[in-house]
Amino acid sequence: AACATAPPVPDRPAMPALEDAFASADAAVLNAEPVKMTWWQGFGDDVLTRLVAIALEQNKDLAVAAANVDTARASLSRQDLNQSLSTSSSIGAEFGRAARDGADTEFNASGTLGASWELDAFDGISAAIEGAAFQVEQLEEVQRDVAVTVASETALAYVDYRGNQIRLDVARSNAQLQGDSVELLKVLFENGRATRLDVERAEAQYRTTLASLPLLELNIRAALIQLSILTGRTDVDISDLLGKQGEARGDIPTPPSALGIGTPDQLLRRRPDIRAAEAEIGRRLALGQVERARLFPTITFNANLLSLFTEDNTSAESFGFAIGPAIRWEGPDLRRVDADIEIADAETRAAYAAYERTVVNALGEVELALTAYTQEQARREDLEAAAASAARALELAQLRFDEGLDDFLDVIDAQRTLLDAQDRLESNRLSTTRQAIAAYRTLGGIWQTEEIVQAVSESE
User: Fold this and answer.
1) What is the pLDDT of residues 80-135, one digit of tens each?
2) Per residue in 341-373, is it b (16+ CB within 10 Å) or e — as a string?
3) Phi/psi at 145 (nearest 5 deg)?
């Protein structure tokens, strides 16, 4: 342990081989085109585009991430200065009398000027600078990850707002239809053309539909509050942007006909959490090199200029200087340094493992998101057909009841089926758009920190 011999740096583990394309890449709705940086613009909704621009500019989490990057850059600048000359100076003055009989009062002044420079003989300083640079890179990727999250969360909240608005309209429309049926049945019951059972069944269905309205209104309110938090705006400001009461409601944003998802190799070069994990490996390797440099002496060149002024002496003898090297070493007992190297190497191995885990998780998240999106797309045609059939079934049930061929139970059942089919269809449209946003989120989106600013300008 007392020998100044640096142990080998841990080897980088081999990464798993990547496929040329994602397994879930359905050519009908997905393609290998690179992911668009401002993917939210592909939904063709001006309000969504504006909301994302506001969020990227005003979000507080993003402001914190940006400040952390500034801190890391300042730390890098501070580390870089360790390569240059370090200076110091001091000056002092005294007025007094010595503690002896007959001593006169005196005025004395002194000053020193010093400079020192450490030779980076064993790369300790350069390794520390490299580690600080990797820290900047890592925090830039964290900032980009926050930007991707903010953009996707804003899009999800907006889609939830629009989707629940439409579901509320569907429920209200059906509630109106069911309420009219209840009133009609009451009249028919009074005239002996309907039974009490028909009235109570219709009333139960009507009340059940009414009971669903507050939950949908709660979902709308929750989405509005989420948008307010993400954009740093008040509820009133967001409400004005979304549209005033009584105005025509916006539809659920529709994803592009085919999502550009890129390739697995592009994913590794694009996803911020993967890039941040890779930067952490570089930082840990650099810190390990800093610890290894401690096995060897540090060599510093010092120069000092001294001066002393008194009332009786202002001659050249009152000036002095000193120049020469200084060598400092933590040996010969280097056990503490060896222990610190072992700690650094263990942390490096942990960074390798975290990187591998991040890659595997990222690939799994993308495959899951793409599968969910394609499956929601596959359900659309059947749900549209079901809603159309349910509407025709209600017309036929109402017609047969009016002609006295069936009782009102068939009408009630047809109304319930129609409401369920319409709600499932709108829920599928909402879920499809949500899954598209989730796919873009897992794919990374914004590439570099400066592209956050570019994304804001392109969205305004």
Assistant:
1) 999 999 999 999 888 776 666 666 777 788 899 999 999 999 999 999 999 999 99
2) beebbeebeebbeebeebbeebbebbbebbbbb
3) -65, -40
CA distance 45 to 337: 60
**With contact defined as beta carbons under 8 Å apart, do 21 and 192 qualify?**
no
Which pLDDT band holds residue 246 (cuts at 50, 70, 90)? very low
The residues, any chain, with a CB within 8 Å of residue 342's CB and separated by 6 or more, are: none
Residue 300 has pLDDT above 90, yes or no: yes
Q: Which tens digit of pLDDT belongs to each residue from 169-223? A: 999 999 998 999 899 889 988 988 888 988 998 999 999 999 999 999 999 999 9
Answer for the pair 250, 51: CB distance below 8 angstroms, yes or no. Answer: no
N- to C-terminal Cα separation, the chain: 62
What tokens were used for 323?
């120049």
pTM to 2 decimal places:
0.83
Domains of the chain by start residue, with CATH: 30-85+123-296+335-389+431-459 (1.20.1600.10)
- Bond before 264 cis per omega within 30 degrees: no
Query: Nearest to residue 161, comparing CAs of 216, 80, 200?
Result: 216
